[in-house]
Amino acid sequence: MSQRTLVLIKPDAVRRGLVGAVLSRYESKGLTIVALEHRQIDAAQADAHYAEHVDQPWYPPLREFAVSGPLVALVLEGDEAISVVRTLNGATDGRAAAPGTVRGDLSLSNRENLVHASDSPESSEREIALWFPNLV
Question: Which residue ranges make up each domain of the chain?
Fold first, then answer.
């Protein structure tokens, strides 16, 4: 079943020059880039994206990280794209992520974990509408 999913290549990956390495993993798996934009976000965009987390005590440092530098937002499409991307990305905590995954091979910490990906069809729909309203 073909799906679309949102991916954010976070500021730590951009700072470290890993955008191409991350994108190549998705493309090598047969996913298609539908939209891609390099941008800097503000606190309001971070809050909208992470709306379900803004009341958590750990959220302020996440927001600070999200706005700390440019990121790359993209929409990928392919067979079971949501689960495929999440498997390719690996566990959220890069220290625990399996070797061979984006985070397992490249992430240096839990908070600065290189990538975000939609976790469900509902999240994907909401996130794509937020980041790429022209695709809705």
Answer: 2-120
β-pairing, 71-79 vs 2-9, is antiparallel
The sheet that has 32-39: what strands, in order across it? 32-39, 71-79, 2-9, 115-117
Q: Which CATH superfamily is 2-120 part of?
A: Nucleoside diphosphate kinase-like domain (3.30.70.141)
User: pLDDT tens-digit profile of 73-113?
Assistant: 999 999 999 999 999 999 999 989 999 999 999 998 888 99
Residue percentage of the chain with pLDDT more than 90: 93
Active centre residues (catalytic)? 116
Rounded Cα distance, 68 and 30, in Å: 31
- pTM, two decimals, is 0.95
